[in-house]
Every structure is written in structure tokens, then in C-alpha cells.
Amino acid sequence: MWRVLIALVVLVVATSSPAWATHCRWVVDPASTLDVISAMNREGGADNVEFQIFDNSGTMLGGTFQSPLIAAGGRFEITVGNVYASAGVSTALLRKTYILVREVGGFETILQVKTGRETFQPLHFDSGFSGTGSCDQH
After folding, report:
1. Mean pLDDT throughout 58-86?
2. So what's the pLDDT on residue 10?
3. Is 101 exposed, middle or buried (CB count within 10 Å of its CB: 0-12, 13-18, 19+)?
4. What is the pLDDT, as a whole number, of residue 42?
5. Residue 9 counted as domain residue
6. Which one, of 18, 14, 15, 16, lies nearest residue 41 by Cα?
7. Residue 70 lies in a domain
């Protein structure tokens, strides 16, 4: 009995909470090339995010752009115009496309979008787009 209890305790301690979490994804509908996407790493080790641009039919355009590593407590900010330039997609397609942002390394990333009028957190999904699931956004 004690061996089973000790084995369970060791298993729980050895398994960190990120192993139970799911990487988050966000969909950003850009309004302007001057909008700013801000990824904040709340805690833990260094994290990064990946940007992809899709047209309204769901076809990926251009390449994938990945942020540098974001230290714990740090932030990475980029304008929508720079996301499009980094992915090799013309900003003339802005109104016919959207940006998919995905956690790549680590967990605990919070995403915000700053426009000329407001700052908001876009809707987030778990890695299977099946809802927020265990995508950690607390």
C-alpha cells in the first residue's frame, strides 16, 4: 500500500503542470498594419510563439514566422505589418486574411492585441481548436 502511495506521489511531483497543459492558439483578425500583437510570458522558462497567415478560405499564405525566445516575465511585441512582411505576405491582403498565433515553446503565454482604440485579448483555443480545454490563460 505504501509503495503505491509513494509511487503516486513521486509521479505527481516528477510531472510538472505544463505536461498536463495544452499549447494555446489565437486567431487575430487584423484591422491595421499598425496594430500591435504582444506576447507575454507569465512565468517559467523561455517561451516563444509562431505566426502564420491564412486567407478566409483557410489556405496558408507565405511562410511561418517565429518570435525570439521570450524570457519569464518578458514580452515580445510586433506590428501586424511586420508579421506580414516577415511571413512574406502583402499587406494589401489584410482585409482578406487572418493571423494564427501558436505557442511553440513552453506554456503560460498571454496574447494581447493593441489597436488605435483598444487593447484586447483575442479568443484562444487549445491545440486541437476544440475549445479552450486546458490551454492555460489564467
Report:
1. 95
2. 29
3. buried
4. 82
5. no
6. 18
7. yes
Banded model confidence at residue 96, pLDDT cuts 50, 70, 90: very high
User: Which residues, other chains included, contact 18 with Cβ-Cβ below 8 Å and sequence gap of 6+?
Assistant: 44, 106, 107, 108
**Distance of alpha carbon 137 from alpha carbon 41, whole angstroms:** 11
pLDDT at position 55 is: 95
- Determine the length of the chain: 138
Residue 137 C-alpha cell reads as 490563460
Structural domain including 99 reads 22-125
pTM over 0.90: no
Quote the number of domains for the chain.
Answer: 1
Residue 136, in any domain of the structure: no
Closest CA to 28 of 132, 98, 112: 98
User: What is the tens place of the pLDDT at every residue in 5-20?
Assistant: 233 222 223 333 344 4
Angle at 137 between CA 76 and CA 67, to 5 degrees: 25
CA distances from 99 to 6, 8, 17, 36, 125 (A): 47, 42, 28, 12, 14
**Does residue 138 lie in a domain region?**
no
* 86 or 116, greater pLDDT: 86
Provide the CATH number for the domain around residue 67.
2.60.290.11
